[in-house]
Design brief:
2 domains; DNA polymerase, domain 1; alpha+beta; 161 residues
Length: 161
């Protein structure tokens, strides 16, 4: 096992939304802090910082990941998709329309994480309604009561809305 000294830093290259970011970081830096503070992509929200609320979810190498539970150094060489990148993807118009039609957001704090899960697990898959319930179980929303979000996700790929 490699022992690291306090204050030691490491180089990383993380491709975020198609752009490679080269930075020198401390090994303890969370991916969520890398995104928000080091790179300035503040669309990814941070709520609990304990892996519970799902607000910080992003897509890492195709998988929905809690960025508050990942170290930036563990993403060296990875491809990360955040809500800023999702908003530039061709399928975003369809996602936006579904959330608008079904009233899938209110304050929007939980929305970037839910959109990341939607892109990773719903939009490009044949997702069952049960799978959508499991995705929703990983995202806390204090506003909507989940009804509109559920309908939006169902419309996007989980069967009839
Ligand atoms: S901030 Fe990461 S799960 Fe809540
Ligand atoms: S829309 Fe406000 S927390 Fe979900």
């Amino acid at each position: 096992m490699i022992k690291r000294q306090a204050g030691e830093t490491m180089p990383v290259v993380i491709t975020i939304n198609g752009h490679p970011y080269r930075r020198i970081v401390e090994p303890r830096l969370l991916l969520s802090d890398f995104l928000r503070d080091t790179v300035g992509l503040t669309g990814t929200h941070v709520g609990c910082e304990h892996g519970v609320c799902g607000a910080c979810t992003v897509v890492v190498d195709g998988l929905a990941v809690r960025s508050c539970l990942r170290l930036a150094v563990s993403c060296d060489g990875s491809r990360v998709l955040t809500v800023e990148g999702i908003a530039r993807r061709p399928e975003f118009a369809r996602i936006q329309a579904a959330f608008e039609q079904h009233h899938g957001l209110q304050c929007g704090f939980c929305t970037p994480g839910i959109l990341a899960s939607a892109v990773a697990e719903v939009v490009h898959r044949d997702c069952t309604p049960q799978a959508i319930e499991e995705i929703l179980a990983g995202h806390l929303c204090r506003c909507t009561g989940y009804v509109g979000i559920r309908r939006a996700l169902l419309a996007l790929g989980g069967g009839p809305s």
